[in-house]
Amino acid sequence: MDRDGKTPAPQRLIANPTAQLIADVLAAVDSSIHTKWCDGLDDLHLPRVTANGLSVPIVRVSWNKVDEFFERLFGVANDRYFANQLPRCRRVWNRRFRGLAGRIECRSKTIELSSAHYEQCGIGAMGIVLVHEMIHLALFTERLPHGHTGEFKRRSYSLGLPRIYHELPLPNRLVRPKRYVYACTCGLQVESKIRFRAPRACATCCRKFNRGRFDRRFRLFLVEDRQQAG
Fold it and tell me: Which fold has domain 17-173?
């Protein structure tokens, strides 16, 4: 109890080093998002994504505070987990990344982050991506192999990130729709993102009537181009 005879509220403890790092930086940048982040770590019913094996809530910092978050995150992580040995890096947003959420060019000291992944997955997920890239930079700075080596995996695991791949979903705006619809005379339909340049046949009919080999009798024919229809 305190001097007033009241029992103090228990402090929230976040065991995962990277989750704690993000919480500490959010506390300095945006207290309301910090609360959402900490609450979201406990509430598994809130929308979340998995980044490098760590399941985190989807929370977003307003764009005018995003640069401050990543600047602070790099600095605090550098001091706390990398003995302040990492050189400063230029950070840029890349709108062309699809499956890639982040990338570092160690020689030019440039870290690229996917703006589309940030918009969909939130600040915590991209903070994890930044820490991942910092591990690459640490190995490079120490003149060690800086790919996804055994040492990289050991360091990643020590920071609470058990997987080396981000596992984030492809952002919705980057998902290429299936524009073309093909059909077989048997009634089966096949959707495709691309237009077939070479003849393709119905796999079901080929297996049934020609031992799985291509048979022109069951060639798929275009029945719909959704873009033209729209």
Answer: Zincin-like (3.30.2010)
